[in-house]
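Handout, tutorial session.
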Amino acid sequence: MEKKSVEEGKTIAIISYLTWVGLIIAFVMNNEKKNSFAKYHIRQSLGLVLAAFVLGFIFIIPILGWLVGMVGYLVLFIFWVMGLISAINGQEKPVPVIGPKAQEWFKGL
């Protein structure tokens, strides 16, 4: 990837990891610029947000759902940190498990 493209999209990429509101803001900011580095991280962040949403439904189930939910949220937090660090360092490194699927499912963004 071109270094200029990474530098231009780095701020948007970082914003995309700052809650779901940041994801929406990053999507709107990148809508006219169409920076490929920012798009990559927006897709990664969207995958993480949707996974957290699904975990929220699992968390409704008493006891077993709570255990799975807590472990799942811990894993998602680790993945979120990995994605954020990747954006800060200017790398297109997918988060484990969710990252490759997010790139495939949301390639139209």
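The second record follows below. Compare its token runs with those of the first.
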Amino acid sequence: MTANFQVIVEPEDGVFVTYVPALDFVSTYGATREEALERTRELIAGYIEMARKEGVTIGVPETGQRAELVDLAVSA
């Protein structure tokens, strides 16, 4: 099975942190963007494998269904 998951990549304190919104925002990081994305690929595969073993159904994102990243100004 091949599925596309949206991943948020965020530079933070000299590393790249990733989040996967479709999988309860699971997160990992890497020293480079490429390393972070490879670790994220492994994280997603492991998440799916464990969900199958536990009998948990996960919602695989539908093609064309996209999250939106918005900058929101807030006055405090």
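Points raised in discussion: Helices lie at 33-54.
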